[in-house]
Amino acid sequence: MHSFLRALRDAGRMWPFLVASFLCSAGVASLWGANIAALFPIIEVTLNGDSLQSWNARRIDTARQNIERSREALANLDAHLAATPADAATVKGQQERFTLALRSDEALLATSEQLTPWLDRFLPTDPFTTVLWVVTFVVVSTFVKHGLLMISTLLVAWVAMNISRDIRLKVFDKALALDRTQFMRNGSAGFMAQVTGTSDMLASGITSVFGGAVTEPLKILACLAGAFCISWQLTLACLTLAPVVGFLMVWLNRRIRGVSKRILTRSMGFHHVLLEALNNVLTVQAYTMEDFERDKFRTCTRDVMRTGMWHTFYFALANPITEILGIGMVATSIAVGAWLVINQQTHIFGFTMTERPMTVPGIMVFFGMLIGASDPVRKLSGVFTGVNVGIVGAQSLYPLLDTPSKLAEPAQPRHLPAPHREIRLENVSFSYDRIDTVLRDVNVAIAFGERVAIVGPNGGGKSTLVNLICRFYDPTEGRVLLDDVPLTDLALRDLRRRIALVTQQTELFNESILYNIRYGRWDATEEEIVEAAKKAHAHDFIADFPEGYRTMVGPNGFRLSGGQRQRIALARAFLRDAEILVLDEATSQIDVESERLIHEALAAYVENRTVIMITHRASTLALADTILEVEHGEVRKRPARQLQVA
After folding, report:
1. Contact 401, 7 (CB under 8 A)
2. Cβ-based neighbours of 84, under 8 Å, separated by 6 or more
3. pLDDT mean across residues, the chain
4. Contact 394, 4 (CB under 8 A)
5. Phi–psi pair at 568, nearest 5 degrees
6. Same domain, 586 and 453
7. Higher confidence at residue 441 or residue 401?
8. Residue 408 three-state SS
9. Residue 149 and residue 349: Cα distance in Å, rounded?
10. How confident is the model at residue 5 (pLDDT cuts 50, 70, 90)?
11. Beta-carbon neighbour count of residue 57 at 10 Å?
């Protein structure tokens, strides 16, 4: 619940819209009760051929007569009590009844006298014209009510969608800011589920709170207030089922929250299976695992469907539970009210229900008020469900947003001049799980302009070493320094803008070739992009495409060959014009002739730059000044000429 309250506080920042929505909801509730109350003059007065003015005048006369009689009766009782003190108990009971009647008639007289000038000024004296006025009021107020309801709905929806959008932006920002360990803990499927389904759940909860949870209770209060004015005792008697319904709703809310949590878990599993199969579809097809993946997908969708059916069951169960309260109120009012009217009584089972016997029109308006309250009570079931769904969504989203990245930005980052002088690792050790050590007590210095090749067996820690220099991870022990300044004291943006990275697993966006190369430096001109492509020997094959640089590469560049993808990635790195170039097996998918041409380009490009290359290619090693041998977590540095390449 705490997380959902945070979401509501976030929504509170848009208080002008919420206040406007609340006022609209209050107007809807007022008109809801007024439409029902407007039936009273038709029933009580006009259908008897009377006008409201004469009806009100008779009420004043009757009230004055009743007041005089009550005062006379009280005076006589006082005299009788003085003459016969032994009858004190009986006389006091009678005095209380007459005093109660006196106060009721005085209140009725005051209300009627205040109403007189308004009736004389604004309402006609003809009964049928009065009926037309009342009918017109009901029709117009219905239009106004629905107009206010629409405005309120749109305002609340706007607030909810803005909060949902803000949450999506925050989740996306968090995904981009997290270190790789934290990111992989959730995975692409987890973030996808949070950005889509979970955010929608939260938006549904906010809409329920500021929409139905405001409008429907106000309608109930408006109708119950009208019923209280007629008889507060009878109204309370009609609410005897409220505690039972309240207990059932608490039980149901817990069930709905539990099912909603399972839906969220199933949804994340659903996204995981879907994305894993589709992202690795080539492997699935190559190893004829289509049936296996189909079975997995059918299983997870069956689980989602089963959980969804339980959610639908509890959602459907909410309607009859809340309707029990509405029907209970109406049934009680009909039974008790009918008995009071037929027998012209004010008490039932010794309990006072009204100060004076109820009339048929009066009890009909009372019935109308309770029926008017029962409809929003029924609609509250949907509100409760929406709130519970929102609570579950908030409980999933906010802990994720509160997860701190292990790559903390410094409060006051230090700034270094470019280019740098040295990269140094001091006593660096690293472990992904705090159990197995990938790098152990590494001490290496790389001077500016030095070209370093990192070699060693797979799994020895080569990529981890590069990831620490790029600060995709922080060392478990020791420090990585740039010009004697720890990387943790530098802004990540300042550090990474100095680096151009090309990995073995080339990542391209489903955009044009121009877009993918420009990603290296977004403010680059098309001439600079073409020049970078020429350096990477990508221009020729790009020019052969009918759309040239406007050619769409497809998801992760599937329309291009592996060598073409790597050359576009190299062009992107060349365009960045960074002082540190990191190549992680960057030429592993390039043919021999392209490799020769690219190495010529690299030989020219690496001047006055620090180059760090993970490679096993002899041609790439020829570019290196220094070799870093990484094996079993240990790093040894030696001059390149000492390494014999087979």
Report:
1. no
2. none
3. 79
4. yes
5. -65, -40
6. yes
7. 441
8. coil
9. 43
10. confident
11. 14
Q: Which helix (H) or strand (E) holds 506?
A: none
Under the banding of pLDDT at 50, 70 and 90, the label for residue 530 is very high
Q: 385, 315 in Cβ contact below 8 A?
A: yes
The tens digit of pLDDT for each residue in 108-150 reads 788 888 888 888 887 777 777 777 777 787 788 888 888 888 8
**What residues contact 594, with CB distance under 8 A and at least 6 apart?**
537, 563, 567
Does residue 469 fall inside a structural domain? yes
List Cα–Cα distances, 412 to 178, 393, 419, in angstroms: 20, 35, 21
Tokens read off for 312: 């639908």
> By the 8 A CB rule, do 466 and 454 touch?
yes
Determine whether 182 is exposed, middle or buried from the number of CB atoms within 10 Å of its CB (0-12, 13-18, 19+).
middle
Residue type, 475: P
Q: Choose from 267-276, 295-304, 348-357, 369-378 the range with maximum mean pLDDT.
A: 295-304
How far, in Å, CA of 397 to CA of 389, rounded? 12
Domain containing residue 441: 422-642
Do 475 and 602 sit in the same domain of this protein?
Answer: yes
Spatial distance between the Cα atoms of 535 and 570, rounded to a whole number of angstroms: 9
Give the rounded distance of the alpha carbon of 502 from its chain centre: 37
Dump pLDDT digits (tens) for 491-516: 888 888 899 988 877 888 888 999 99
**What pLDDT digit, counting tens, does each position of 423-434 carry?**
999 999 998 877
Q: Which of the four pLDDT bands, split at 50, 70 and 90, describes residue 644?
A: very low
Question: Which helix or strand (DSSP H or E) is residue 578 part of?
Answer: none
State how far Cα 48 lies from the chain centre: 56
**Mean pLDDT of the region 218-222:** 76
The three-class DSSP label of residue 445 is strand
Burial call 364-398: b when 16+ CB within 10 Å, e when fewer = bbbbbbbebbbebbbbbbbbbbbbbbbbbbbbbbb
Look at strands 347-348 and 351-352 and give their pairing.
antiparallel
Query: Do 426 and 502 fall within a single domain?
Result: yes
Answer left, alpha or beta for residue 437, where phi above 0 means left and psi between -120 and 50 means alpha: beta
Q: How far apart are CA 599 and CA 616, in angstroms?
A: 14
User: Are 471 and 606 within one domain?
Assistant: yes
C-alpha 183, offset from chain centre: 21
Radius of gyration of the chain (CA): 40
pLDDT tens for each residue of 453-476: 888 887 778 888 888 998 888 898
349: alpha, beta or left? (left if phi > 0; alpha if psi -120 to 50) = left
d(Cα 295, Cα 289) in Å, to the nearest integer? 10
CA distance 519 to 573: 9
Please state the pTM of the whole predicted model: 0.65
3-class DSSP assignment, residue 432: coil
DSSP helix/strand/coil, 253 = helix
| Residue 610: CATH number of its domain | 3.40.50.300
What does residue 95 show for φ and ψ, rounded to 5 degrees? -60, -40
* Res 350: pLDDT: 64
Alpha-carbon span 397 to 479, nearest angstrom = 34
For residue 240, the SS3 value is coil
Backbone angles phi, psi at 612, to 5 degrees: -120, 120
Question: Number of structural domains, the chain?
Answer: 2
CA distance 64 to 202: 59
Cβ(231)–Cβ(366) under 8 Å?
A: yes
Asked if residue 561 and residue 597 are part of one domain, the reply reads: yes
pLDDT (0 to 100) of residue 646: 41
